[in-house]
Amino acid sequence: SRSLRRGLHTLKGSARMAGAIRLGELTHVMEGRIEAALESGAVNEALFADLEEKMDRLSLDIERMAGGAGAEAAAPAAPAEEKPAAAQAAAAPAPAPRAEAPLPAPTALLRVSADTVDHLINESGEVSIARSRVEAELRAVKQSIGDLAESIARLRNQLREVEIQADSQMRARMSELEERKGEFDPLEFDRYTRLQELTRLMAESLHDADAIQQALRKSLGETDAALAQQSRTTRDVQQELMRMRAVPFSILDERLYRIVRQTARELDKKAELRIEGSQVELDRSVMDRIGAPIEHMLRNALAHGIEAPDARRAAGKPEAGRISLSLRQEGNEIALVLSDDGAGLDLERLRRKAEAAGLLQPGQEASPAELAQLIFVSGLSTAEEVTELAGRGIGMDVVRSEIAAVGGRIDIDNAPGRGCAFTVYLPLTLAVTQAVVVRAGGSLLAVSAAMVEQVLRLKADALAERYAEQAVEFQGRRYPLHGLAQLLGAETPAAQAFNAVLLLRSGLQRIALHVDELIGHQEIVVKNIGPQLARVPGVAGATVLADGSLVLIVNPVQLVQRARSAAERAALPAAPAVAAAPLVMVVDDSLTVRKITSRLLEREGYRVLTAKDGLDALAQMADQLPDVMLVDIEMPRMDGFDLVRNLRGDARTRALPIIMISSRTAEKHRSQAAELGVDVFLGKPYPESELLQHVAGYVEGRRH
Fold first, then answer.
1. Phi, psi for 275 (deg, rounded to 5)
2. Is the peptide bond before 97 cis (omega within 30 degrees of 0)?
3. Are 557 and 504 in contact (CB under 8 A)?
4. Disulfide: which of 270, 381, 615, 687 matches 320 by Cβ 3.0-4.6 Å?
5. HSE of 697 in the Cβ direction (CA atoms, 13 Å)?
6. Hey, how many other C-beta atoms are within 10 angstroms of the C-beta on 142?
7. How far apart are the C-alpha atoms of 671 and 685, rounded to whole Å?
8. Rg for the chain (alpha carbons), in Å?
């Protein structure tokens, strides 16, 4: 109590000296309350409740003073969450050390804008990309020097052969002349010595080329070593910059404790908040985004989870609920677990709400995990009545969106009657990461290396067996098997002699991922993907490779979750399905015409199929029939007239509306089209409104 009063006294004096009279008076009132309680011996729960309330007002005033108008505007949004009794008591003296902590000497501290640090991190990332390009060029130069060495070796062997052959032929010629007992021709001797001289000169030139190649190899080795040193230096700079941007989670502690206390008072409940692992550091940009979601989950824990004191006593629980917030680092992720010992999620109430909203059919089977996921549906709330804290159906859907926006995810572990736990996985940094680059569906993609537990190479028959079992067994664990190309909506390629399968772990979930090709492991710079892709499930960011190509960074586990939910929605008899958009087929050999017409129709809400000629159109129509067809006349393999003739001769497509569009507008073309059964003939160019009018008319006619 002495240190607390000393701290309050120091704060009071400093506040009055700084002109913060209101703050000083509040501190004076707290001092008097503590002294009166100590003199009378009335140190009880009411004293702590009164001091906590005054401390909340005091800390809010300090926040407003520190943050100016911005903090003052944000301060009213703080109310409402929980904190443990033990933590509440411990939090009371917080202002004291804050006021007593001496400021560093001005020369020991350099204030740098956070935006400047972000800019430096981005620039260091550009340095890494440039280094990657240099490394790629060096690899190409190494390959070229290796090829040069082989070429020099071949030339050396060939030159030696030339010397041997020339020497043999000259000796044979000399022997023949001697046998004839003729005299040796000086000209032939000169020619022989000249050939020897040329081979010697060529050998010397070859030796010079070899010396140059060796010098290049040595220089390249030195360059490689210097580049490796530069890589280490760049990595150190990046890590130091990211450490500058990292902030401990503990900066939110005081605010979260206050939210719990205020919310508990408003709801007339008792709760304790315990925070563990708050020394863990997060990227500042991640911290900025997750503060509000955590506050909302804390309010939910009190409003929906923790029961009233009477209900807790009846259930054999302590009057004060316990809310725990723990953080730990797992690889390059931060796992944040927020749990309570309340009533847990009321799954039956969730089912009733979902049925009322049309999300579930009455009597439709759904697992507890599927019902728990319903709390993330926009507009769905378990609250019976709308209050300031809950019941508007806007909350957990926004929480999940905010967490997903920084590349995180959230899981639920519900125990009815015993409590509920939310596990949030957040990226450690948003700047630089280690990744595995793979090819799937014709595209290059990057997967965080921290997710990869093992890489398997399976033969074609072994892969087929795993696909039949839909899982891969490894070291006693079962990994559900998925093809990355399938998750992306592309066709799965034919099995190769050896196939790469990545065993991935993300939080508590594990999957086996079959990829078309494993490119390799490399350090990548994470770039901002912008608002267009920021909320796309499974896309965590993008990077630029050494050759300048853009590559998306994906989380395959999220892609699997999205695929599962889509499959479940497709499999359920679900609420009245909305009729599919009308399907229009465009048949034209011109890629430009197909693109322009497709965009026009898609803007009007139609689905579009395209075919490059008649045969292609017939092949696609074997699977599904369009509502309307737009057909050109002149096309390879099968022209428009032949296509119409085939369609009108088939009972399945006899009544299909056909609009022929062609630059051939002569009367003979129009009459032949009419004879074959074309419904409308339009000449190019045509008014877009006229085409859309015809399409809409035929679609409406077929629907009725």
1. -110, 125
2. no
3. yes
4. 270
5. 11
6. 15
7. 19
8. 38
**Burial tier of 586 (Cβ tally within 10 Å: 0-12, 13-18, 19+):** buried
pTM of the model: 0.49
- Mapping DSSP to helix (H, G, I), strand (E, B) and coil, where does residue 559 land? helix
Which tokens hold the place of 676?
A: 């074959």
pLDDT, tens digit, for every residue of 306-326? 888 888 888 888 888 899 999
Which residues are CB-contacts of 239 (< 8 A; sequence separation ≥ 6)? none
Coil/strand/helix, residue 339:
strand
- Distance set, CA 51 to CA 98, 293, 697 (Å): 17, 28, 75
Count of CB atoms situated within 10 Å of the CB of 78: 17
Sign of CA dihedral 246, 249, 254, 260: positive
Minimal CA–CA distance to 508: which of 417, 414, 409, 427?
409
DSSP character at residue 604:
T
Question: Among the listed ranges 78-92, 117-131, 673-687, which one has the minimum average pLDDT value?
Answer: 78-92
Give the span between the Cα atoms of 170 and 166, in whole angstroms: 6
Q: Report the C-alpha gap between 5 and 54 in whole angstroms.
A: 14
| DSSP bridge pairs for 459 | 498
Where are the alpha helices (H) located in 440-502, listed in sequence order? Answer: 460-469, 484-487
Which of 256, 268, 251 lies closest to 87, judged by CA? Answer: 256
Q: What six digits make up the tokens of 436?
A: 């595995």
- Beta-sheet pairing, 539-544 with 517-525: unpaired
Q: Which amino acid is located at 650 in the chain?
A: D
* SS3 (DSSP) at 520: strand
47 burial level (CB within 10 Å; 0-12, 13-18, 19+): middle
Q: List pLDDT tens digits, range 251-292.
A: 888 889 888 888 888 888 888 899 998 888 888 878 888 888
Q: Is 183 helix (H, G, I), strand (E, B) or coil?
A: coil
Alpha helices of 180-277 — where are they, by DSSP H? 186-245, 253-267
Cα separation, 466 vs 468, whole angstroms: 5
CA-to-CA dists, residue 596 to 134, 593, 682, angstroms: 41, 5, 16
Do 432 and 125 form a contact (C-beta atoms < 8 A)? yes
Query: What angle in degrees, to the nearest 10, is found between the helix axes of 284-300 and 253-267?
Result: 20
Sign of CA dihedral 652, 654, 659, 663: positive
Strands of the sheet containing 550-554, edge to edge, are 517-525, 432-440, 443-448, 550-554, 539-544
Q: What is the DSSP string of 425-445?
A: EEES-SSEEEEEEEEETTEEE
Pick the closest to residue 156 from 202, 222, 218 (CA basis): 202
